[in-house]
Every structure is written in structure tokens, then in C-alpha cells.
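// run 5 | inverse folding | seed 20
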């Protein structure tokens, strides 16, 4: 399952999405501290199809988790080389330019 929330700021559509089992966790290693909270990520539980539609409309995205990031790679929204990891969990950020 995926948790996702859309944030609208000016003309931007920002998608925050994570694998649902990560909600409420703080992932931290030497370089990165990532708090996955309900304020930013905790919109609704969505299906894979709903998530794909949300991602297709986003002008930027913050994505955390194996399922969430895998779908973004499959959709060619992000490249595998752009994926980082914290505590073994993949995360990526997407920005549409222009």
C-alpha cells in the first residue's frame, strides 16, 4: 500500500508518497535524517493505479519506499541512478523543470 498527499503551492503540484508501513518512522544514517510524518506524507492510502495518476500530474515529488520508488522508475519519472538510500530504504526527489 502507498500513502500519498498532494500539496498545491502556487502553480506547483507537489506529491509526497511513501510505502504505508514507513509512516511515522524516522530513518537516519550518517548523512540523512528522514522523518516520514502524517503532516507531509499522510494523505490517503491509494492504489497503485491512483498513485500512478498522481505521479503523472505532479510537478515535483518526494518518494520513499521500495514500492513507491519502483513505480516511479517503471514510469520513467526518475532514473535508477537518481535513487538514494537511507537505512536500506530507497528515496528519491523529482522536479519537473520547464
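// decoded
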Amino acid at each position: 500500500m502507498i500513502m500519498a498527499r498532494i500539496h498545491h503551492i502556487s502553480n506547483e503540484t507537489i506529491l509526497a508518497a511513501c510505502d504505508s508501513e514507513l509512516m511515522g518512522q524516522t530513518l537516519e544514517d550518517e548523512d540523512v535524517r528522514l522523518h516520514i510524518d502524517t503532516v507531509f506524507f499522510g494523505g490517503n492510502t491509494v492504489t497503485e493505479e491512483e498513485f500512478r495518476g498522481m505521479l503523472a500530474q505532479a510537478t515535483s515529488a518526494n518518494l520513499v519506499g521500495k514500492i513507491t520508488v519502483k513505480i516511479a522508475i517503471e514510469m520513467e519519472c526518475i532514473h535508477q541512478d537518481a535513487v538514494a538510500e537511507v537505512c536500506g530504504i530507497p528515496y528519491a526527489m523529482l522536479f519537473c523543470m520547464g
